[in-house]
Amino acid sequence: MKRTIALSINGKSHADEVEPRLLLIHYLREMASLTGPHIACETSTCGACTVMLDGKAVKSCTMFAVQADGRKILTIEGLATNGKLDPLQEAFWNEHGLQCGFCTPGMILTAKQLLNDNPNPTDEEIRKSIEGNLCRCTGYQHIVNAVKAAAAKAGA
Amino acid sequence: MATTTTKPETLFGKKIRRREDPRLLTGTATYLDDIKMPGMHHACVVRSPHAAARIKSLNVKPALARPGVTAVFTGADVKDLGPIPCGASLPGLRTPHHHILAQDRVYLVGHPVAVVVATDRYIAADAVDLIEVDYEVLPAVSDPEKALAPGAPAVHPQWPDNTAFTFHQEGGDITGAFAQAEVVVKQRITSQRLIPTSMETRGVVADWHAGDKSLTLWSSTQIPHLLRTLLAGILGMPENHLRVITPEVGGGFGSKLNVYAEEALMAFVSMRIGKPVKWVESRRENFLCTIHGRGHVDYFELAARRDGTMLGLRLKLIQDLGAYHQLLTPAIPTLSVLMMPGLYKFKNISADIVGVFTNCTPTDAYRGAGRPEATHGIERMVDILAAELKMDPAELRRKNFVGKDEFPFQTATGLAYDSGNYVLPLDTALAEIDYPALRREQQQARASGKLMGIGLSTYGEICAIGPSPATPAGGWESATVKIEPSGKITVMTGASPHGQGEETTFAQIVADELGVDIDDVVVVHGDTAIVQYGIGTFGSRGTAIGGTALYYALQELKGKVKKFGAMLLECDDVALAGGKCVDERSGKSVPFAQVAAASYRAMKLPPNTQPGLVATYFWEPPNFTFPFGAHVVITDVDRETGQVSIRRYVAVDDCGKIINPLIVAGQVHGGVAQGLGQALWEQAVYDENGQLLSGELTDYALPRAHMMPWIESSHTETPSPVNPLGVKGVGEAGTIGCSPAVVNSVVDALSHLGVRHIDMPLTPEKVWKLIQGGRA
Amino acid sequence: MKISGSFLVPVPQERAFRLLQDPVVLARSMPGCDTLERIGDNEYHMKMKMVLASISGLFDGKVRIADSRPHSSFRLIVEGAGRIGFMKGDGLLTLTPVEGGTNVGYEGTVEVGGTIAAVGQRLLDTTARMMIKRFFEKLTAESASSGAFSPTAIL
Amino acid sequence: MIPQDFEYSAPASLKEALELIATGERKILAGGMSLIPLMKLRLAAPEHVVDLARVPGLDYITESGGTVSIGATVTHHDLESSPVIRGRAPLLAEAAGHIGDTQVRNMGTIGGSIAHADPAADYPASLLALEAQIRLVSAKSDRTVPASDFFLDAFTTAIEPGELVLEVLVPTEEPKEGYRYEKVAHPASGFAVVGVAARIKKAGAKISMARIGVTGMSSRAFRALEAEKLLESGAGVAQAAATVAEGQEANQDLYASADYRRHLARIWAARALSVALSRAS
Questions:
Q1: Distance CA D228, CA D239 (A)
Q2: CATH number of the domain that C46 lies in?
Q3: Residue D94 and residue B558: Cα distance in Å, rounded?
Q4: Judgement on whether residues D74 and D166 belong to the same structural domain of the protein
Q5: What phi and psi, each to the nearest 5 degrees, are found at residue D7?
Q6: Strand-by-strand arrangement of the B614-619 sheet
């Protein structure tokens, strides 16, 4: 039986009727038309679908939309403010932290939580924090550089 | 008209941040699954759980009864469509008829049996479970060597020996080389099956327009134009009624250099239901139904003199082809043969390939495609020879390298290496790590019971694939450059990049050649209705061939611009700089926009000149390019657990001239990650019955951030004489250079225990067992 | 995948042999077995509901007894297919009298396919061993009962 | 990958939740990190899912009278970063930090994890070493089960139909205690190929108490009682660690054979014990 959910996505209120089995990622992509979060595995291993739920990085493919009822979601589309890129987005750009770009939205949001929790992470802490986000293109080195650069900029 | 004197800085060689990134960073790029169309249906494919079986019966009625299900199609519906094509031609090649959906038999797990079409992807998924298929399970074979054994189950009953082809290539005097040899080392070396695993799986949207009998097909592919040509053949429709578009492509690594059943199937479905239809591959489907890479069992024999002079190499190569030929399946091992001699000057080789059918996913081009296997082989054999001769492996390599004055160098496999200085990256890398000091440290480590290894790989590769005679579909690339009436520049390239950054590097080339602001350039690709024609991005060819086509198109265009510029400035010749045509004698100039406007307005034309500013160039390369490099890896092996950790990874690559160092570094890092994945973790494991046991990302281990070492990457630059840009290509270098360096390093760490070889992946248990005393 | 092991069944060899081939006992002992219906000599149609914590699946299959050598050994072949995949276990059971009953050794293979093969290999060995253990535990419990089996267990 | 349809309830009180799960085939959803992937693969197809997220007051971490109480819906992330856990049950905080990845730790809960009882999960080793208790409640009952009686087999626990995990009760570690959770993570899944939790108390130079929990090696986590006894009777770490796999069946998979798993358990027990010993004062 369908249920009505009401939630905030990127600061905007949404209310929709959904099947309980509707995965949050499908809700975001198909009902809210936010296609930034991606689907790349079915086993909760790749992190491409990562969004922030009440400020914490979560895998939206491993959550039902009904679980997000009443909560706040941030997707990659909501990260830049007034057209100004987030320092992490800017750093990923400067440091060539992406190639095909498919993992990038999830990667950035996971890194976002890291910098919220730990504004000055070591290389090892960066690598550990993004272990749930697979990237097949970059070998991660430029991603680590990007997160470091964003941290340095925020600290400067 | 203004005057100008400052010469603009060139962008060639500069770290320019990528122009494709803003859309990717903000989640606004459009990948295949982001496409949404009115009335769009969703398809889900019913697949065989068995590796070999006869379909006794198939009942689709319960699925059709599910509300929301529009149609179900089975093998009978598509039996008259053409087969999935194989582009490789080898003498005597046996090619099974590759239907889009199984007819009465399935040949591998994941074999498509039926397709369900519904108004919603959830309903389609539900309906798949309602399709009843009754299988008579047949014996299967998943190991290529077992498939060759007498009495093995026949993958295709018409060919009981499971042999798709045999191929022999010989150069020089191999018998003589082995007769002269003072030492011969032999080793069986495997390159395990790998799953390419682009982060975006494949996907197709097909939209049939009955009114004009045309079809638009979006596919996450590396080869939109070839796909269109081949798909038109499968569907039996005129090629010019078919438009193929690649949206943003989330990685390919060779796995999207293909024509797949689902591409034809979605076209068929859309034509039948009269609505757009979308299919997006699940990860498990990606593991089962998208090509795999490698799958070699190689028997090498290397002949040498006691002084280390290498004389000749013999190879028996058993290629696991899988159950079908995909686009290039049988051709991939022939690339291995070409690359067999590596960077060494011996001129006697002999290779025998046996292509073997197994009830497994077809193998095909995966990053490196045949070259990593060959490089792994020769670089392991050189180390094995060094151990046999008790020579330093670096010294042995130097002794046998093709000398820097010997280019172009004709190899025994028929190639002409374009340019090189092979000692340079090796010496640079060894200096970087202080090789003598490390060898001393290694002695001390051994004395105290610790295991550390130093591994070298001096690799070569064949890039810029390739000249048309060597490439099944043609090996050229094309570019069109257009200066729009407003003076802005649009490039249309046939190379269809998907992460390689050509929107940036190509714009750099344009900006330099035309002397314009890079922001005035837009690079368009991946739409057969817009782009002239092209081959695609694979085989490290995008920049070396696509970039060169662009370069030549620009030369033509420049000629025309100059004519209009000179006409406007009323002089004989002009230079292009700062977005202007400049009369260098008078210092007068005219901006591009004005030149372009004049060319389109065409009030007055220079003599023998057509209106408009457009040039198209199809460039046929005269040769491949041959990048090279040296990777040095220092490993520590945990004696108690067999766990390998990488202390340092030094890569010195020579990919010719570098247009954008940022992008080149990214290619090296990503390549190394995939090489390291093969060396240490990745492996497609089938059980005896053809079940893929490493069937999800929870079992198939891709490198994660915390598993990767810091890669110390630098370059030497030996320009290629093959193209005017001097570029060679870098997409596959890291992958090719990496795995032998890692394995050589670990074998080196264990060599004093009597270990001579370890097959990949170097799992801790495998290494631990060798430490326990098992020789390999 | 190869499996092997042994269990002590606390009854004499002859009785152990009979119990192990008794469809009623098998139906009660095989984990998840809903019904067992004779379709031929030593061959039964089986419906099974496998439940392992959150994981559950319905299987439709066959149980077959072959190469029977009273009272020392026989082969037990169990196969089933369902939406989450298929499985086939083929084992040789060897009975030897020991103090306190009969030692039942088993040696054989387990094959799986479909989703359970693709995602379950990490747990296959553990699960197979657990199911076998449950089987023998149930069998032992059955062997302790009076032996008056209800015929309605076989449909 | 799409789950089968199901009915969904999000009870607003514990009472309501217990009433809901008292009948029929009801599956409890906490963080969903184990359940939802199975549902997506259709390996699990519950008819009715009861979501605990709206039940108030289940995500507490409190300490009193030498016991830390952890509500069932406390996430791994909250556990790992909780000052109470870090101060009073640091072994558990260390174990929580090894679970899954950032996103999984943000959603996954201790109650969900232990109820799922994956044989390669991280918590059980620590809960055994800590001699924790698990409180199970149903509409009709309320009981506390020691961890050693809770993990019965792979995916099999002492939870009876109609019961749910209410809280985990952990005796506080003394500040002088040494502790360590060490793990060999599977490179793809991150699950423990072998995980060892160790606690050591010293009296002077001697070990007065040793607790060792092992996960991943066998079909269920277990205490290495023999090794504990050896340590408490003066044996060295190496000698004690050599016994941890004794009498236990070992799992095998593509990554590690049974023999290698036993070996890893011994090696990592020695390593965990050494760190625990060095941390004990």
A1: 11
A2: 3.30.530.20
A3: 65
A4: yes
A5: -90, 150
A6: B521-525, B489-493, B477-483, B614-619
CB atoms within 10 A of CB D240: 25
For chain A positions 54-93, those within 8 Å of chain B (CB to CB) are 75-77, 79-80, 85, 89, 92-93
Q: Are residues D232 and D262 in the same domain?
A: yes
> D222: domain CATH number?
3.30.390.50
Are the Cβ atoms of C119 and D189 closer than 8 angstroms?
A: no
CB B359 within 8 A of CB B107: yes
A147 touches chain B (CB under 8 A): no
Residue of D nearest to A26 (CA): D2
Helix, strand, coil percent values for chain D (each to nearest 5): 35, 25, 40
Where does residue A20 rank: exposed (0-12), middle (13-18), buried (19+ CB within 10 A)?
Answer: buried
Query: Per this entry, what is the length of chain A?
Result: 156
Q: Is residue C119 part of a domain?
A: yes
Domain B21-28+476-619 has CATH 2.60.120.200: no
What is the value of ipTM here, to two decimals? 0.96
DSSP state for residue B402 in the 8-state scheme: P
Domains of chain A, first to last: 3-76 (3.10.20.30), 87-155 (1.10.150.120)
| CB contact (8 A) between residue B669 and residue A89 | no
Cβ–Cβ contact D4 with A under 8 A: yes
Q: Residue D40: list chain C partners with CB under 8 A.
A: none
Tell whether B645 lies on the interface with D, counting CB pairs under 8 A. no
Q: Average pLDDT per run of 10 along chain B, which is 776 residues long?
A: 53 96 98 98 97 98 98 98 94 97 98 98 96 96 98 98 98 98 98 98 98 98 97 97 98 97 98 98 97 98 98 98 98 96 97 98 97 98 98 98 97 96 98 98 97 98 91 92 96 92 96 94 97 92 95 97 97 93 95 95 95 97 97 98 98 97 97 98 96 94 98 97 96 96 98 97 98 73
Nearest by CB to A46, from B251, B697, B706: name it: B697
User: Are the CB atoms for D76 and D99 separated by under 8 Å?
Assistant: yes
- Range of the structural domain that residue C135 is part of: 2-143
Of D170, D196, D227, which residue constitutes the final position of a domain? D170
pLDDT score recorded for residue B8: 55
Find the domain containing D135 and state its range. Answer: 61-170
CATH topology for B296-466+623-771 is Aldehyde Oxidoreductase; domain 4 (3.30.365)
- B216 φ, ψ (degrees, to nearest 5): -105, 130
Residue C154 has a pLDDT of 36
Distance (Å) from the C-alpha of residue B26 to the closest C-alpha of chain A?
6
Does the domain spanning B32-138+201-249+256-289 belong to CATH 3.90.1170.50?
yes
Q: Give residue-wise pLDDT tens across range D118-169.
A: 999 999 999 999 999 999 999 999 999 999 999 999 999 999 999 999 999 9
pLDDT average, residue stretch D239-267: 96
Cis peptide before B420 (omega within 30 of 0): no
Task: Indicate whether D113 belongs to any domain.
Answer: yes
Domains in chain B: boundaries: 21-28+476-619, 32-138+201-249+256-289, 296-466+623-771
- CATH number at D27 reads 3.30.43.10
Q: Could you report the per-residue pLDDT of D156-181, keeping only the tens digit for each?
A: 999 999 999 999 999 999 999 999 99
- Distance (Å, whole) CA B235 – CA B238: 9
Cβ contacts of D98 on chain A, cutoff 8 Å: none
Write out the residues of chain D at the interface with chain B, using a CB-CB cutoff of 8 A.
1-2, 4-5, 42, 184, 186-189, 254-257, 260, 263-264, 267
| Band of pLDDT at residue C153, cut at 50, 70 and 90 | very low
Asked, for residue D213, whether it belongs to a domain, the answer is yes
Nearest alpha-carbon partner for D118 in C121, B377, C52, A47: C52
